[in-house]
Amino acid sequence: MNRRLLVILLVALVVASVSSYVIVRMVGKNMNAAKPLPSSPMIVAARDVKIGTILAAADVKTVNVTGLTPQGVITQAKDAIGRGVISNIYTGEPVLDSRLAPMGSGGGLAATIKQGMRACAVRVDEVVGVAGFVTPGMRVDVLISGVPPNSNTQDTQTRTLLQNIEVLSAGTDIQKDAEGKPQQVQVVNLLVTPEQAQILALAANQMKIQLVLRNPLDTAMNPVQETALANLFGNPTKPTQGKASTSSHKPRPAAAQPFTITVINGDKRSEAKFASTGGQQ
Question: Residue 63 in 3-state DSSP?
Fold first, then answer.
């Protein structure tokens, strides 16, 4: 083998070995110098917890996580136990303060009512609209039917009273059915403002209420004109007029009526008759 080539290979091997040794020492030094990340306690759900449930000690557990914890997470069990759940929490999910009702507010339906809102109960029956298919979280429009007060006619009218209203509970259920099956209910609680609650209370005493489902993604508030019962039948059809006569015969003009003139000459009195204008004398 060429002596010169052998020398070049040996030099290259030495340089590669030295470079590898230097890199390994530098990486190892940096790894040893790196500080371990601190761990923090975090409260997570020990099992699935449904909306309206008051958290108990068996519902939560404490775990240690490395690095930063999610914002708003509860780190001590005492800050979560005894508070109502306002949104479903699933096994292993961090328990956030925003998912729980304030301490002392209890659980059930009351804990799910948002600040400044009201839960207004509306009585429905199994025939009215889609009452059997309304489940918590859905959006509905509220329609009323009846005879308006001080109306000149006793015609029944229907109008859209409220739009895009959230269903808070259906019957005694404040959470969705896991299988999505509808059930017949007699009372539906709607999440409304105080002003809307007054409107619903008045309408419930005077009118018939019907709920209609809407797409949750459709939040547009469309103006809807009220409909009267008479409008469903439309205007009465006009009688069909007969075709115009094609005959060239013209009707005979009525006979002219004569008129009389009385002539007085002294003590003599006479009358003269004349034909009317356009007629013969």
Answer: strand
